[in-house]
Automatic annotation (TrEMBL):
Name of the protein this chain belongs to: Pentatricopeptide repeat-containing protein
Signal peptide feature range: none
Keyword Repeat listed: yes
NCBIfam families the UniProt entry points to: PPR (TIGR00756)
Transmembrane domains' residue ranges: none
InterPro entries named among the record's database cross-references: PPR_At4g14850-like_plant, PPR_rpt, TPR-like_helical_dom_sf
Keyword Repeat among record annotations: yes
Top-level taxon of origin: Eukaryota
The entry's keywords: Repeat
Pfam families in the record: PPR (PF01535)
Organism of origin: Penstemon davidsonii
Length: 89
């Protein structure tokens, strides 16, 4: 069962948080994307996190894949874990 903190973040609207905002000329950094991936993973939204990793405009490093791997282990998602492990190796 998810803890209270992860229940709160399940209502995040991912695209609104990480999109480029042309009005204010703010572009999300690699770190912003990494934080969002971590939040998605912690809330059990592994497929969304994986899709976000694959669509990042930055070089995908081991940090984001290991975040997904950790969450896959915690959530018991073997298929997602295998994908993350293959990307790390």
């Amino acid at each position: 069962m998810a803890n209270k903190d992860s229940l709160r973040i399940t209502h995040l609207k991912q695209p609104a948080i990480i999109r480029s905002d042309s009005k204010y000329k703010i572009n999300p950094s690699k770190e912003n994307n990494g934080c969002m991936i971590d939040l998605l993973c912690r809330s059990g939204r592994l497929r969304e996190a994986e899709n976000m990793i694959k669509s990042m405009p930055y070089k995908r490093d081991d940090v984001v894949w290991s975040t997904l791997l950790r969450a896959s282990r915690e959530q018991g998602d073997v298929e997602c874990g295998i994908t993350a492990a293959e990307e790390i190796l």
